[in-house]
Design a protein that fits this description.
Radius of gyration of chain D: 21 Å
Strand order of the largest sheet of chain C: 2-1-3-4-5-11
Order of helices and strands of chain D: HHHHHHEHEEHHHHEHHH
Number of helices of chain D: 14
Radius of gyration of chain C: 20 Å
Number of domains of chain D: 1
Number of helices of chain C: 11
Strand content of chain D: under 5%
Chains: A alpha/beta, B mainly alpha, C alpha/beta, D mainly alpha
CATH architecture of chain D: Orthogonal Bundle
Helix content of chain D: over 70%
Distance between the termini of chain C: 42 Å
Shape of chain D: globular
Oligomer: heterotetramer
Strand order of the largest sheet of chain D: 1-4
Helix content of chain C: 40-55%
Number of strands of chain D: 4
Distance between the termini of chain D: 12 Å
Strand content of chain C: 15-25%
Order of helices and strands of chain C: EHEHEHEEHEHEHEHEHEHEEHH
Bound molecules: adenosine-5'-triphosphate, magnesium ion
Chain lengths: 525, 345, 309, 326
């Protein structure tokens, strides 16, 4: 039990004593919680604390080693996802679970299409269209049911997942980190939908690292630490710092560590007139050594695309890039790296890491010449030494760098590996695209600390983040990007206080035609 | 290709530690070698000749050509590709090489450059077809399965056609003694083909496990997107990999041609399944990112032992088919079980 | 080695048609009758594999090798290996290329036999008084037998330029459905085809099907009869000759060849000198000489056996 | 969008068909016999077996697996038919090979799903085993089929030759199953991402199994159509047809990585391949160039497809801002 409020009605869902091991390692040590109809339960904890695992058990993806679950006061032990769905548990996974090659309507009914008749297994196309339209309306999504999911933005896909969950008339909906790729406005829309779901008597389990969001949405909060319960309670009895203290076992007071150095005079990266039809228009800016330049913008405003163009991953039609005064013509990732640029992608899983490889192998991939020995062959000793020392630098939780596979690390630690592999190159310019996406407060702190160390050593940092607080806390300057165009530039005002005008940045980021941004984000040719 | 089957984590439990030795052996990368030993023990009562020096020497020399081409295939499989064209490369290189050096109308007939010229031509054929494969995959965005299926068909046909311009019979003979010496000669008692194969294997092993290129190859096989962003020249790596496979096939062709003293346009035509089978039995994944030269050595050894024993038994063709298929299937099943076991530890 | 019993290795390159199946069976029966053990292996048209099989046979210390290689040049290292091990080697049906290695070959002259059979058909064509359009089904282009039979065909029709014109050369790759499709297409392109030669009788069922579909399956004398020449002398070929559906067929004398092969092995073992080349002249069986020659046709003997029971 | 690029887009989207038309024109110019209705009927009859096989292969490719055993499966079922079902009426024969093929598919599927062995290896091993068993049963002899079966080749219903009829029925069924039934859509989902499909509650193993059974079933039916045409089977029967079936599917746009493609494309691919062979036969081309031309055309078609996807991706790329402004 997470708390001791008076039992008005029997709980919708009760979980007690869940245990679970992977490969002989215990990751859950007796988790319990309960959920009432019409209420939202927040589940928080550091990376790898077991949140997703707990929910995977509830959703039938994994089976527990021990413990019991009661749904509507009846024993509940799903043998597979299908069974959980039929029992009324809808699961919106951390990594979205849609099929881009199918249409929205097909995705909504993939596990149970309405048939034309009981005997003939033909899909009743008219029925699914009607019901899809209805469900899309429920999540305020104005799309044609026949649209292939491949064409949807991340936020739209999230809403489709919710619509899919609604189609099952669920008793419980689990949201595993639903906001990591949503814009603020989409987040607000999501919250409105969650409020409506609660009003309909559906129980919500909400997992997130965004503690403010949790405090907004949830009625109760349960905190996990290292696979065990670390506390929790009713929302009104808790505060964000208190939750953080429960999560990490200590209190973290200053969120953004102070920085002692000022940007230097020399320009590390200069971008002039960068343009690509449909993506970017005449973008010019520069970053000085020792400076953090924040790039703010709505989701889909083209920040990632801009970063990818600079790093030579995407082509551009026009424009010049120079690093430390030297022009970088037709950049490719290789020439960009040689010029001193490093790039941390927003998609750690599919672009940042070789998930099945060890920490050491991942780390040295970008700096193979540095670990070469005789005959230019890779020297295994040097590899391990290099990786171990970098693991220390980034405070990685493991030092078994050649035995630990990256896929077995938590999100935060994975991010440290990516950062570490770029730090090994001692980059003059480090482009960080959403460096704290999906990682917990403790790990975020580490990332902030590393950013500070970087600029103190004289690197320039281009920081892309959807968390405006993060940009304000870390940047020396902030640019705003809207629909592929720079729409504003802000200098940190000296002295105490936040240093930036949050409202002004938001306004610049949304551009003038605020109302048009949603349709404007996508224009399929 | 298919996705790697998910490991059944839910069934995974901490295991009590017993039979540790055996378990470690079964799980180790020497597993295929263990299988070889087990197989030898099983067939020994029926074919005692298996353990004679003569048969051992035969096994060794039969292994070498297959090993070299299988090593090339290993590279391609590691980048999650496949090279079905190796057999056609062997045939094409064979007839081109023979047409250069044959005493009857060869381009370099009688010249002291005939042998080196022919070997060079064969290597060039291998590299060129490998380059066609690689460029088609990288530049034209084609799946390697189809590219190499098409080049296999093309060059198998081309080799036969080419022969008609250089010989009245169906193959090109009258090769210089300097060339046939490759198959017959030895250095301090070690056959030349063994030396060549060992050199290829060592070079390939160092390349894959120790060189920068090797790291790039594994990275491309595991995740090309991530590799590209980490500064790996993905397209070039793929191209080089196919060229390595082509060159290895050409070296195999040199061995076959010198052994048969004939450039035949159908030499090696039927060994594709042996090549891929050997590599996969060794443990290299068809899905990329995983594979070792040593594993391939064991895989080839296993297949050749199997073949040799059946030759000595005088097994009929259908028995060979059934046994070979069954053994490949069994080895793959054991390998899968082994990986499941490994995942639970 | 096991006392008393001697072992003979019988190495064929494939059992792709009834000729080889019957051949290996006759050799097998004969050797067994004489008290030999047999070590059999099929190389599947892979000369390298066959070389390895020869070495395995040598390691097994066999007392003689009967071999059918795919390529006449590529077999020479195998002969040398057998020479070095002092094991007699006899080539069944296909001779090796000339070399200083010693072995005995039984040869059927594919080209000559094909030529003779086709010559008969050409004469039939000429006697009909009109010009015939001809199609040849060519075997696998990598197979020397196929090439020789094609060359024999070309030589024969070359002598009758005004009676026969070759309008379709259909590659079959020794593959039944390729042959069927190829002949069907050739008949489509040249509806007047009235002369067909197949490089092997094993394609008879497909040819029958294609000709039936084109309404050209009729006995000799009928308006829409196609002059049909076979090769090998299969039981099915005899059946067609008997039914007057086939005009001529090049026959390899299988019984004679197997007899020669086994005798040669025995003689070599006994240390007698044997000619390097023992010829099976083969013959063309035609409607004219069918009765007198059929007993020599292996296909007839098998056919008789089948149709007796 | 500009007219020019729209035209380019249209051309690219239909590139395989453009190639087909080019081929037709080329062969048509070389022989006046080529562009005849009877010849097209011929082409389709000849393409029917491989098309049926490729339709089955498409199911397996769609779930990102592969079946290399279909040719051997054809040989084994045909041998069993010839040896043990002599004298049965043809519908019984057809049922026998279809059931036999489906059972072989079931074995493939069970090993793949239950034991988790890669399908490439399973079906490769099965290729050897099935071929071996068939040679053993038939003693590597040529097996003949009775007139009841071979006469089917010359039978027509409502003027449609039996081979074309069989092919149309299989095609229509496959199309409906893939596009109009829950199972079909789930096949696409499993092919796209089996792990996601499992999480979505789909019976991934059962679907995988079903696809292998369908491939086996189609191998049986395709094999039956082939034997009705060629009348006899020998040890080379069905050799390498798996590659032809895969080539036909890929030519028609089926991805080897699962989740993309359709049986309509597959059928087109099969017809394209047979058209090339037919055209070469009709123009009496030099036998030596057959494999060269066929390979070159397969290569070309897939190369165009690869380029097309790349260019289409670029043209249809997500844009952040309206293009006209740029
Ligand atoms: N399928 C799996 N196989 C092996 N280990 C796993 C698996 N899934 C989770 N783990 C391990 O279990 C632990 C708990 O992971 P879980 O995903 O539940 O954490 P989480 O709280 O959701 O973290 P995050 O905030 O990063 O999403 C981690 O140590 C993780 O590495
Ligand atoms: N309409 C779309 N079509 C295809 N992919 C999309 C679409 N919208 C978003 N994505 C992909 O989803 C991921 C995240 O979405 P999005 O691009 O909106 O966020 P972002 O990259 O953070 O935005 P920004 O461009 O401002 O950095 C990206 O990998 C992007 O390529
Ligand atoms: Mg999680
Ligand atoms: Mg971004």
């Amino acid at each position: 039990m997470t708390d001791s409020h008076p039992a008005r009605t029997p709980p919708l869902l009760e979980v007690a004593g869940l245990t679970k091991s992977f490969f002989g390692v215990r990751v859950l040590h007796g988790i319990g919680y309960s959920l009432r109809a019409g209420e939202a339960l927040g589940l928080v904890g550091e990376n790898g604390s077991g949140k997703s695992t707990t929910m995977n058990i509830l959703g039938g993806v994994h089976q527990p080693d021990g413990g019991a679950m009661l749904l509507d006061s009846a024993p509940y032990a799903p043998a597979g996802p299908g069974e959980a769905i039929r029992a009324g548990i809808a699961f919106i996974h951390q990594e979205l679970n849609l099929f881009p090659n199918l249409t929205i309507e097909e995705n909504l009914f993939i596990d149970g299409f309405p048939r034309r008749s009981r005997l003939i297994p033909l899909i009743d196309r008219a029925a699914i269209r009607r019901r899809t339209e209805d469900l899309l309306a429920q999540v305020n999504l104005d799309l044609k049911p026949g649209t292939p999911v491949a064409r949807l933005s991340q936020g739209e896909r999230q809403l489709v997942e919710i619509a899919k969950a609604l189609g099952r008339s669920p008793k419980v909906i689990i949201f595993d980190e639903p906001t990591t790729s949503l814009t603020r406005r989409e987040v607000d829309r999501l919250f409105a939908i969650i409020a409506r779901l609660k009003a309909r008597g559906i129980g919500i389990i909400y997992i997130s690292h965004a503690l403010e969001d949790v405090m907004t949405v949830c009625d109760h909060v349960t905190v996990l630490r290292d696979g065990a319960l670390a506390g929790g309670g009713r929302r009104q009895d808790l505060s964000v710092p208190a939750i953080i203290a429960m999560m990490v076992g200590r209190s973290i007071d200053t969120v953004f560590p102070p920085r002692t150095v000022r940007p230097r005079a020399e320009e590390a990266l200069v971008v002039e007139d960068l343009s690509q039809p449909g993506v970017a228009e005449a973008i010019s800016f520069s970053i000085r050594a020792g400076e953090v330049l924040g790039l703010a913008g709505l989701m889909g405003s083209g920040r990632s695309e801009l970063a990818r163009m600079i790093f030579g991953l995407d082509r551009f039609a026009r424009g010049r890039i120079s690093v430390a005064g030297r022009p970088l013509e037709n950049p490719t990732p290789i020439t960009a790296m040689e010029a001193g640029i490093a790039f941390l992608t927003e998609d750690r899983r599919s672009e940042g890491l070789l998930m099945g490889f060890s920490v050491a192998e991942n780390m040295v991939l970008t700096s193979l010449p540095a670990v070469a020995g005789a005959l230019g062959l890779v020297d295994g000793r040097k590899v391990v030494d290099t990786a171990v020392s970098m693991a220390r630098t980034v405070h990685l939780s493991t030092e078994k760098v050649s035995d630990t596979l990256v896929k077995h690390l938590s999100g935060g630690n994975q991010q440290k590996v990516v950062i570490g592999k770029w730090l090994l190159r001692q980059p003059a310019v480090f482009i960080l695209d959403e460096p704290t996406r999906g990682i917990d407060v403790g790990a975020k702190q580490e990332v902030y600390r590393i950013i500070n160390q970087l600029v103190e050593r004289g690197s320039a940092v281009l920081l892309i983040s959807s968390e405006i607080e993060e940009l304000i806390g870390l940047s020396d300057r902030i640019l705003t990007l809207c629909r592929g165009e720079l729409t504003g530039g802000f200098e940190r005002s000296p002295g105490p206080g936040p240093g930036f005008d949050r409202e002004a940045i938001m306004t610049a980021a949304t551009g003038v035609a605020v109302a048009r941004t949603r349709t404007g984000t996508r224009d399929v040719a | 290709m298919t996705a790697v089957p998910p490991v059944d984590v839910e069934r995974a439990r901490a295991r009590p530690t017993g039979h540790l030795r055996l378990a470690r052996l079964v799980l180790s990368e020497y597993f295929t070698l263990v299988l070889c030993a087990l197989y030898l023990a099983a067939v020994y009562p029926f074919v005692p000749e298996m353990l004679t020096a003569e048969v051992a020497a035969n096994v060794l020399s039969d292994m070498m050509p297959l090993l070299v081409v299988a090593i090339g295939q290993t590279f391609v499989l590691v980048i999650a590709g496949i090279d079905l064209s190796v057999t056609a490369i062997i045939s094409m290189a064979a007839v081109v090489g023979a047409s250069v050096m044959t005493g009857t109308g060869g381009y370099l007939a009688g010249s002291p450059l005939a042998v080196p010229g022919a070997i060079l031509a064969m290597l060039l054929v291998g590299l060129a077809i490998g380059a066609i494969n690689g460029l088609s995959v990288t530049r034209l965005n084609m799946p390697s399965f189809i590219v190499t299926l098409a080049t296999r068909m093309f060059f198998a046909g081309a080799a036969i056609w080419y022969t008609t311009f250089h010989s009245a019979s169906s193959s090109i003979a009258d090769l210089p003694a300097g060339f046939t010496a490759i198959a017959e000669g030895d250095v301090l008692g070690v056959p030349v083909t063994v030396l060549i194969a060992v050199a290829v294997a060592v070079a390939a092993h160092l390349t894959l496990s120790r060189s920068r290129l090797g790291r790039h190859i594994y990275a491309v096989g595991a995740n090309p997107k991530a590799a590209r962003i980490s500064g790996v020249p993905v397209a070039r790596t793929i191209l080089i990999t196919f060229m390595i496979s082509g060159a290895c096939a050409a070296i195999t062709s040199v061995m076959y041609v010198s052994r048969m003293q004939t450039g035949s346009p159908i030499v090696g035509e039927n060994i594709l399944l042996d090549v891929i089978g050997a590599v996969v039995i060794g443990g290299t994944s068809l899905f990329g990112g995983k594979g070792k030269v040593l594993w391939t050595v064991f895989g080839v050894l296993f297949l050749v032992l199997l073949d040799t024993s059946m030759k000595l038994l005088g097994a009929s063709l259908f028995a060979i088919f059934i046994i070979k298929g069954g053994v490949i299937l069994l080895a793959a099943m054991i390998d899968t079980l082994r990986h499941r076991l490994m995942a639970t530890r | 080695k096991a006392q008393g019993t001697k072992t003979i290795a019988v190495l064929f390159d494939g059992l792709y048609s009834e000729f080889w199946v019957a051949g290996i069976q006759i050799i097998r029966d004969d050797l067994e009758k004489r008290g030999f053990q047999i070590m059999e292996a099929i190389s599947d048209q892979d000369d390298n594999k066959q070389f390895e099989q020869v070495r395995a046979a040598i390691a097994k210390k066999v007392d003689g090798i009967i071999i059918v290689q795919t390529d006449s040049n590529a077999v020479i290292p195998a002969i040398k290996a057998a020479n070095a091990a002092n094991i007699p080697m006899v080539h069944f049906n296909r001779p090796p290329a000339p070399s200083d290695a010693f072995s005995v070959a039984i040869q059927a002259d594919n080209q000559k036999i094909a030529r003779e059979a086709v010559l008969h058909s050409c004469k039939v064509a000429k006697e009909s008084g009109r010009k015939h359009q001809a199609a040849i089904l060519i075997g696998d282009l990598g197979d020397p037998n196929a090439i020789q039979r094609r060359d024999g065909f070309e030589e024969a029709v070359g002598q009758f330029p005004d009676a026969v014109e070759v309008v379709a050369r259909v590659p079959t790759e020794w593959n039944a459905d390729t042959a069927f499709a190829g002949l069907t297409n050739a008949l489509q392109a040249n509806p007047d085809i009235s002369f067909v030669f197949t490089s092997s009788d094993f394609l008879i069922p497909q040819i029958t099907q294609a000709l039936k579909a084109a309404d050209k399956w009729a006995p000799i004398g009928a308006e829409n009869h196609v002059i049909f020449t076979g090769f090998d002398g299969f039981p099915a070929a005899y059946g067609l000759m008997n039914d007057k559906l086939m005009d001529a067929c090049g026959v390899q004398n299988l019984f004679y060849e197997t007899e020669l092969a086994i005798q040669a092995i025995l003689d070599l073992q006994a240390g007698k000198t044997v000619e390097k080349l023992l010829l099976d002249p083969g013959f063309a069986i035609t409607q004219d000489n069918l009765e007198e020659k059929k007993e020599e046709m292996w296909g007839y003997v098998l056919w008789k056996k089948e149709n007796a029971g | 969008m500009k007219i020019g690029s729209r035209l380019l887009l249209l051309l690219l989207q239909n590139a395989p068909y453009v190639l087909f038309v080019v081929l037709l024109v080329a062969f048509g110019l070389m022989s006046d016999r080529f562009l005849a209705v009877a010849n097209f009927r011929n082409i389709i009859i000849q393409a029917a077996p491989i098309a049926i096989l490729a339709i089955g292969m498409t199911f397996v490719l769609l779930i990102a697996h592969i079946d290399l055993s279909v040719g051997a499966s054809m040989y084994l079922t045909a041998s069993v038919l010839a040896l043990y079902f002599t004298g049965v009426p043809w519908p019984v024969g057809l049922a026998a090979v279809a059931v036999g093929g489906a059972m072989i598919g079931l074995v493939n599927g069970l090993v793949v799903t239950r034991l988790g062995v890669a399908s490439f290896i399973v079906t490769l091993a099965m290729l050897f085993i099935l071929r071996g068993i068939a040679m053993w049963l038939s003693n590597t002899r040529m097996l003949m089929f009775p007139d009841a079966i071979t006469d089917l080749n010359r039978t027509a219903l409502l003027g449609i030759p039996s081979a074309i009829l069989a092919f149309l029925v299989v095609f229509a069924l496959a199309w409906v199953v893939l596009h109009q039934t829950p199972f079909g859509r789930q096949v696409y989902a499993v092919g796209e991402d089996p792990e996601a499909a499992r999480k979505a509650g789909l019976p991934v193993e059962r679907i995988t199994l079903a696809c292998f059974v369908i491939a086996g079933l189609c191998a049986g039916i395709g094999g039956f159509v082939t034997i009705s045409q060629i009348g006899a089977v020998g040890p080379k029967y069905g050799d390498q047809v798996e590659f032809a079936a895969i080539a036909a599917s890929v030519l028609g746009g089926v991805s080897l990585f699962g989740g993309r493609g359709s049986v309509a494309g597959t059928v087109f691919g099969a017809i394209l391949i047979k058209t090339v062979q037919n055209g070469l036969n009709i123009i009496n081309a030099d036998p030596y160039i057959y494999p060269l031309v066929t390979a070159a055309i397969i290569f070309l078609a897939v190369a165009i497809d690869g380029l097309r996807t790349r260019i289409l991706e670029r043209l249809e790329q997500r844009t952040i801002r309206p293009l006209s402004e740029a």
